[in-house]
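Service request form, structural biology core

Requester: graduate student, group of Dr. S.
Request type: structure prediction, single chain
Budget code: on file
Notes: please return the result as structure tokens.

Sequence provided:
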Amino acid sequence: MKKVVIIGAGAAGMMAAGFASMYGAEVTLLEKMPRAGRKLLISGKGRCNLTNACDVNVFMENVPVNNRFLYSAINNFTPYDIIDFFDGLGVKTKVERGNRVFPVSDRAIDVVDAMRSFATSYGARLVNAAAEDIIAENGAVKGVVWNGKAFPCDSVIIATGGKSYPRTGSTGDGYRFAERLGHTVTPISPSLVPLESPDADCERLQGLSLRNVGLRISEQSGKTVYKDFGEMLFTHFGVSGPMILSASCYLKSFEKGYTAHIDLKPALGDEQLDARIRRDLGENINKAVSNSLGKLLPKKLIPVVLDRWGIDPYKKCNSITREERRALLGIIKDFQVKISGARPIDEAIVTSGGIMVSEIDPKTMESKLVKGLYFAGEVIDVDAYTGGFNLTIAWATGKLAGESASGI
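Core staff response, request fulfilled:
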């Protein structure tokens, strides 16, 4: 019977533990935090967006970093397989906007409890301890040290996560272990992270959520680096929300001077919007313009738009000129926010960077440098857009690593 030690009881680690023990390995699952699955508990705002109901091709399109490395893992455990897997564990799921898959209960804890049960149901032992070192001799794993003692094993799976949300236990331990054993760690940076802006209007708009708006992010040169449609949120430091988190994957050098261009009325062309503005002003012909935009814009946004428009807010609607009306249209169709940087990595949903994929066998998740050493989940240099794709990576690589480490 093969002895397997798995470091990290998150999504990838628990999946690996369940499958490794299912196929006959003697499994020890190490978790340094008081309970398993801490990051899963807060994923999807506590609802756990556990995968995306899409085919393999769509999944691959949503993994901008090293997607070809995942070909074997995702075909071994597709998003639809993952949905069936959780159904088998008693976690009924539902599909929401963007094919995001959630538990019907809307409770991440149901996913965590199901995974913990799966991880231990075939005899895996869950130990609350921090791995201190991995022992390797002659290019092969020999054991793991925890609580000051060396425990011999045949295989080790590093499933420690990245460096995002360190309070959940993701503090970069896996990178250190891998580097000690000769692996290369690509530069670490936050991904799926809110963005900062020097624009004082963001603080004025703090808490305002915009739905069904268009977003385009450009470099100072004018080149568009990201385009999307959906939801976003203003915060005291800048902008956040689903579109912004996805956009952050594309913004790698803030010296390029990024600007967010928000189309507040993407469903309306310029002529249609102009007609709408004329109608709204006409209905309030003798009122101040500041009291006439409530049907067109969210209440919190009106004073900011008026300031950017640069006209007297008490000016009567009947005296607004064609040029002034066109200027308002321009602001609504291209509400600009300067982007100065990303929030710290401890606020990121995932970590970009990690163990270099060229040093890992994609068909098994085993190290090409150290026999018996495997990797799973966020610790690997692969990351995806928001929408359940990153957890899909964790489940798929965890399953493949667990199966491979068991020796089947």
